[in-house]
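Tutorial handout. Part one gives the primary structure; part two gives the three-dimensional structure as tokens.
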Amino acid sequence: MTRPYIGFGAFISPLHPPGEDPSLLMWRDMELVEWLDQLGLDEAWVGEHHTGGWGTIGSPEVFLAAAAERTKHIRLGTGVTSLPYHHPYMVASRIVQLDHMTRGRVILGVGAGSSPGDAHMLGIAPGEQRRMNGEALEAVLELLEGRGPVNRKTDWFVLQDAHLQHRPYRREGIEVAISSATSPLSMQLAGRHGLSTLSFASPRPGGSPPDLRRQWEYAEEAAAASGRSVSRENWRLVVNVYVAESRKQALEDLRVGSAAWMRGYFGDIVGFPVDSLGVEPGREIEFLVESGAAIVGSPDEVSEGIERLYESSGGFGKLLVTGADWASRENTKRSFELLARFVAPRFNGSLRSLDSSRDWVMSRRGEFVPQALNAVKRAFSDSGVDVPQLTVPERPEPA
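Part two.
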């Protein structure tokens, strides 16, 4: 079977259970990004959180600027910058500076903001966030595209003859991706402006899997209505993925961390009634796998899960592995190593030429082996030495 082409990266929110030194948490997140770069993964995304104790990075731009100095190839995305929390001019100005500092490796991921605590501290009513997100996005795009002085006035920001001193590092500009969960609004915004998209494909505990095919249709419909286009190659799906030597080992590696995430984060912090799901304590990871919230197992099992996700979604360009401290630091790094070594090559095309060369040699071994034997015999003969009996045992036919 011909597998689809998919790129791979990580969506490092990050979410860490409380109790660990915050400075060391940031160091550990930075170490992980460096590891992903060494493994050759395509992207690393870091988010913005200000409350709740689990999300420990308040400025993804500052973190990614430091990560850029420690990495060589990996693209770095804000996952995401919450537009209602910032004046759009400052968002555009900061990301262009970061674009230059990374030599064009940055991606601007944007969203409306998901933490009620963050919005509350800034005096933003939850019902206004999506409107503000759309208004800010339009302003940011105008500034990044350099259409001329930008003049906009809303009830929360003003732009007067606004323009950026620097253009993006690359002629094609900065890639902008908008995040989407379940509602159609973000995908419609992506289609309206012809942007990349970033969808959360893992359902929340107890929730039904998102209708990814319909999500993509929202983007296509809005793009057609606006005379724009969107590409599945620029559609990223964020998924909980973990690779181990076996399904049994994977489940054991994730047992404690997934329970803490499900009950501590979604239960205690978000306020989701986890106990109402009837999940037996200690078997949270089995529940998450069975509900489609996680793809875990051996490289073969994870590859099969990714293929199913590709089929159910209708196709996407990149898979971003969620970082949520489900496993220990060492096992998390090991999982990404197995992903890079044995899963990603099945989808990113790096094995195709090797497989083709192997098949070509195997198909002509009946010709190549006798030629090699004859060459050895001639070497003996030319040396004046008796030629030994060289034969190749017949290969038994497969049963």
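Part three, for discussion. The chain is about 45% helix and 15% strand. The first helix runs from residue 22 to 39.
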